[in-house]
Amino acid sequence: MAEPLRLDRDVYLQLVAHCYDGLPMEGCGLLAAEPDTGRVARCYPTDNEAASARVYTVPSRAILRADRDAEERGLVLAGVFHSHTHTTAYPSPTDVAQAPDPTWHYVIVGLGEGEPVVRSYRIVGGTVAEEPIVLG
Amino acid sequence: MPAVRLPTVLRSHAGGAAVVEADGETIADVLAFLEATYPGLAGQLRTPEGTAHRFVNLYVDDDDVRYLDGLATKVGAGSEVSILPAVAGG
């Protein structure tokens, strides 16, 4: 399995809460990491512009704001999170086809199994590889 | 000269820089300048027909160029142009 994704504990709680808040629609947002360590230190919950239970779109203006804010904090955008409201926490064909950056982490919060299931993936050239999540 | 913020996915084509300087009076000029200066960006920003790729969002300062004049949007010497990825999925 790949190198673990280091995820700040508060970020973990924040992104899960945001996905629950978004129900019945998919919730989404961006992740920012420390460039030296790769540790995800901040998340940016956003609206789901698609307003859908099956797909999500992060508003471009939210990407602009997050990018600027992350830079001011010495961080870099390093991934995206979103929920699967009724299915497992595994990238859908749409997720794979539209993955914008092979260096990013793709965190999915599965809400279809009674309790949240959070998993992270790399998506490179259409190939999905899960990476373990380490909190801290 | 306008400054251009590059998304992480394209920075490797510009020596890893997050922000580069560009030249031009419109967004189209700026994109052409970038493609000429950083050959790795060619084909990443515009379609062969010259329109912006659908997976690229373009802003001048705080404004989405789709709601201005598109690629004909004017760019000032002190403008900041942001190239942002489209982030979506299912």
Description:
The complex is a heterodimer of chains A (136) and B (90). Chain A is α/β, with parallel strands linked by helices. Chain A has helices at 9-22, 60-72, 93-98, and strands spanning 5-7, 28-33, 40-46, 56-57, 76-84, 105-110, 117-124, 127-131, 133-135. In chain A, the strands form 2 sheets. Chain A has a 6-stranded mixed sheet. In chain A, strands 1-9 form a two-stranded parallel ribbon. Chain B has one domain (3-85): Beta-grasp domain (Ubiquitin-like (UB roll), Roll), CATH 3.10.20.30. Chain B is built from 2 helices and 6 strands, in the order βαβαββββ. A 5-stranded mixed sheet of chain B has the order 2-1-5-3-4, with no helix packed on it. In chain B, strand 3 and strand 4 form a beta hairpin. The N and C termini of chain B lie far apart (39 Å). Chain A binds chain B through residues 28, 30, 50, 54-58, 60-61, 63-64, 67, 71, 76-78, 80, 82, 91-95, 98-104, 106, and chain B through 5, 7-9, 18, 55, 57, 59, 62, 64, 82, 84-90. Strand 4 of chain A pairs antiparallel with strand 6 of chain B, so a sheet runs across the interface.
Low-confidence stretches of chain A: none
The CATH homologous superfamily of chain B is named Beta-grasp domain
Regions with little confidence, pLDDT below 50 for 5+ residues of chain B: none
Largest sheet of chain A: 6 strands, mixed
Mass-distribution shape of chain A: globular
CATH fold annotation of chain A: Cytidine Deaminase, domain 2
Largest sheet of chain B: 5 strands, mixed
Which sequence of SSEs, written as H and E, runs from N to C of chain B? EHEHEEEE
Largest protein-protein interface: A-B, 32 and 18 residues
Which class of chain B in CATH terms? Alpha Beta
Give the fraction of residues assigned to helices of chain A: 10-25%
Average of the residue pLDDT scores of chain B: 93
Return the domain count of chain A.
1
CATH superfamily of chain A: Cytidine Deaminase, domain 2
Distance between the termini of chain B: 39 Å
Number of domains of chain B: 1
